[in-house]
Amino acid sequence: MKSLGSIRNDFAPWREPQAQPFIRFEAITKRFGQFNAVDDLSLSIFKGEFFALLGASGCGKSTLLRMLAGFETPTSGRVILDGDDLAGIPPYRRPVNMMFQSYALFPHMSVAKNIAFGLKREGMPKGEIAARVEQVLKLVKLQDYARRRPDQLSGGQRQRVALARSLAKRPKVLLLDEPLGALDKKLREETQFELTDLQYELGTTFIMVTHDQEEAMTMADRIAVMDKGRIVQVATPAEIYEAPKSRFVADFVGDVNLFDGTVQAVDRGRITLQTSAGSPFTVTSDVAVSNGQAVTFVLRPEKLRIAAEPLSGANVLEGEVWDIAYVGPVTSFHIRLANGAVVKVAMINATRESPLQLTWHDRAWLQFDEDAGLVLTA
Amino acid sequence: MARSAREASGETQTRPARKTISQPGPDTRGWFRRIVIGVPFFWLFALFLVPFLIVFKISLSEVVTAMPPYQPTFGSIAGWWSALKEFSFDNYRWIAGDPLYFNSYVLSLGIAAASTVLTLLLAYPLAYGISKASPAWRTSLVMLVILPFWTSFLIRVYAWIAILKPEGLLNQLLLWLRVIDQPLVILNTPTAIFIGIVYSYLPFMILPIYASLERMDQSLIEAAADLGATPFKTFWTVTFPLSLPGVIAGCFLVFIPATGEFVIPDLLGGSRTLMIGKTVWLEFFTNRDWPVASAVTVVLVIILVLPIVLFQRVQARAQ
User: How far is it, in rounded angstroms, from Cα A11 to Cα B111?
Assistant: First the structure.
């Protein structure tokens, strides 16, 4: 397989045909009244994976997580964990722990008591509990906060306590429901890496639910993109971004330009596309298409070059600068084409002084390589 | 630039005029706030503190056969000083000396405590059930809890006489069901008092407990289950501790009025159960000993208020 993105994946049990999945959702349906929250969904997750369920609110991702935790019962289908069917097993007997979106820290207990709660229920001896509490507090760097109450902690500290509490029992699977949702941006970015490191260190299988694609891409080994109770694609972050299977995934994950076109000619992996954006595009693709077929051409903003002068060669678009946003690492342009469509372009600010000087309503020319985009038939 | 500056200056010219017309100045608002806060405080002052001080003053007086039946009285400003010198704590000494009062206090506190516990045992499951009901049902169920208030308290207590008396509804039912072959004697016993108090004060216990249960974060219950707590353990380690503020408020709301309860023991408890409310009534109306009755009342207030104040101190320090 050709490598997408810039990360080499050494850990990829999903590519090994003999690997046994650790968690299996088998044809799961969950109905609330007339509404199918999860619709005939099957999914395998492997041991040691950091797996993300990504989707808009109401797509069924939380319901799926809650079925694994035992808070919801599937209407039909089976959930299998480490070879055991979880049907009929109440939440308090499942070898999984959950970190709640609201953290759900017990407000009447100290940090240490919160963490010890699950261990006490196990009947662990007192000395061992104390040692374990200290160990997980160290893991989340909160050793000095054991005696505080949750209301005496900051949002970030509370998040760590919730994490420590859910890890204390050394669950087979840790479920994270929007783990960073309540943190501010800066803290969220720091915590993302900490969580990834922690997961790597512990080797525990993590399953995370999030609506934030950046969060999912930063942390997860694999992402399942969900829509209307179904999974639309399961793949690594790079595959999701660079090789989305459908228009929905392409549009949901990251910024994207979508061109509707018809195939004009196919010649050994090179396709000529007619779109309303201007002269035909010539692109490489291994998708099987035939002449006259309607397809979608997907082009990420950072894969376009922008210039203030006319460009020669193939795959050039011309338009007017409609909007500019200087974001810091990139400058984002919205270029309005003659047909009225707006194309998003992201220019990396590789140097402090930009050679390109553009302002609103200037003419601008865009160009992309033959292999920069993706032809989708779905 | 020039235009915006002109607009800005125009704005500053018109603003003060507009302000005085449409908005009350800070002064009037301050006064309004003081009045709003002041009215309830005045109410408490005039209708609780002043009467209490009068009662306290009477408790320091001496009983006489006159109208009013105590002395000294503040006839004129000049008589104040001599009147003050006549005050004594004799009535308190009298109360302390006679075991009748002591027994009456102990009995009242005992009955109030026991019926508070009974009310709690009945109210907690009810409040819990209501808080677990679907939102559509919850409103109706809370309505049902407060529905008895639509009928006079006195009438409801009289109704219990009809239910509990030997030939009353309860005995008729039990006889008909052949559970008993002799009518039970419930009316005019402490049991009837318990029934009356638990029945009458149940809503005061249910509502605060329900309020604390209802606003509890459901994810805490899930978190407890997730960490391995059985539903039983979850209840005792999470749900119950977090509903304690409601439980405590409910207990106060039941215990305090139950201690001084007069109507229920008088109508349902018969003459043998001498609770403190009845004692005060007897001193006032039968003995016409206003000073002793007042002293009994003052002692009761102290008995009730001191623990509450201490408890709140402890609570405040704990937070």
Answer: 71
Residues of chain A positioned with their CB less than 8 A from the CB of B241: 108
Q: Per-residue pLDDT tens for B13-51?
A: 444 444 444 455 556 778 888 889 999 999 999 998 999
- The parent domain of residue A339 ranges over 255-376
Report pLDDT digits (tens) over A169-203: 999 999 999 998 888 888 888 888 888 988 998 89
Does an H or E element contain A307, and which? strand A305-307
Q: With a cut of 0.95, is the ipTM above it?
A: no
* Minimal C-alpha gap between A93 and chain B (Å): 6
Which residues of chain A are within 8 Å of residue B222 when distances are taken between CB atoms? 69, 71, 91, 98, 100, 104
Check whether residue A154 and residue A268 sit in a common domain.
no
Domain annotation covers residue A7: no
Contact A104 B219 (CB under 8 A): yes
Q: What share of residues in chain A are helix, strand, coil (percent, to 5)?
A: 25, 35, 40
Domain borders along chain B are 18-86, 98-288
Rounded (10°) angle between helices B290-318 and B99-132: 40
How many Å apart are CA B262 and CA B196, to the nearest integer?
11
Dihedral in degrees, nearest 10, Cα atoms B43, B48, B54, B58: 170
Q: Residue A100 and residue B219: Cβ atoms within 8 Å? A: yes
Q: For residues A140 and A76, is the Cβ–Cβ distance under 8 A? A: no
Q: Report the SS3 class of residue A295.
A: strand
Residue A114 sits in the same domain as residue A41: yes
Residue A134 and residue A54 share a domain: yes
Q: Indicate the residue of A104, A117, A169 with minimum beta-carbon distance to B217.
A: A104
Interface test with B, best of A106, A172, A209 (most B CBs within 10 A): A106
In a domain, A2, yes or no: no
Q: Which of A97, A106, A118 sits opposite B238 (nearest CB)?
A: A106
Q: Is A3 a domain residue?
A: no
pLDDT tens column, B192-234: 999 999 999 999 999 999 999 999 999 999 999 999 999 999 9
Measure CA B288 to chain center: 28
Q: Which residues neighbour B201 within 8 Å (Cβ) at sequence distance 6 or greater?
A: B115, B119, B253, B254, B257, B258
Q: Which residues pair with A299 in a beta bridge?
A: A257
Q: Which CATH architecture has domain B98-288?
A: Orthogonal Bundle (1.10)
Q: Indicate whether A224 and A190 sit together in one domain.
A: yes
CA distance B313 to chain A (A): 19
Dihedral pair phi/psi, residue A30, rounded to 5° = -130, 120
Q: How far is CA B94 from the centre of its chain?
A: 29
